[in-house]
Amino acid sequence: MTGSPTSGTFHDGAHHMTMRVYYEDTDTAGIVYYANYLRFIERARTEMLRLCGIHQHAQMNAAPEDRISFAVTRCEIDYVMPAHLDDVIEVKTTVTRMRGASIHMEQEVFRGDQLLIKSLVKVACLNDNGMPTRLPSNFVQMARELLPIE
Questions:
Q1: Which residue is catalytic, options 27, 66, 78, 86?
Q2: Low-confidence residues of the chain, pLDDT below 70?
Q3: Dmax of the chain from CA atoms?
Q4: 27 among known catalytic residues
Q5: Which domains are assigned to the chain?
Q6: Which of 32, 47, 70, 106 could form an S-S bond across to 7 if both were Cys, CB 3.0 to 4.6 Å?
Q7: Enclosing H/E stretch for 72
Q8: 3-state DSSP helix/strand/coil percent for the chain, to nearest 5?
Q9: What is the pLDDT of residues 91-128, one digit of tens each?
Q10: Neighbouring residues of 79: CB distance < 8 A, sequence distance ≥ 6
Q11: CB–CB of 41/83 below 8 Å?
């Protein structure tokens, strides 16, 4: 399944999204500033959700009783190698577990075959009042069809 050119694709049991490292992502030595990897993996998660039918803009404009949002509740990152200005990198997102109101993911950033970072991320699904709520059933069904999940 594919989306727009920036949405990435699903294959080999994961979501894959390619992006380029821009000047704004780097320090004065042309190396990606460590916190910007959080931005890269956030973009990839957003696009994965989009391909699974969760459009965050539409969620913000939904009726309050139907409105959901997602919040990172845990993030662990191992930095292995740096990315540099103009590198083409790929974020690979693997959903490792879905629970009633949360998604657990492993996200890795590669430059070609070289692993740059590995992260473990837990995201909670929240209702309009900021309380945990069940993941939308259409998302769960589509995610299970596209990804091998526990």
A1: 27
A2: 1-5, 149-150
A3: 48
A4: yes
A5: 9-144 (3.10.129.10)
A6: 47
A7: strand 68-79
A8: 25, 45, 35
A9: 999 999 999 999 999 999 999 999 999 999 999 999 99
A10: 34, 37, 116, 117
A11: no
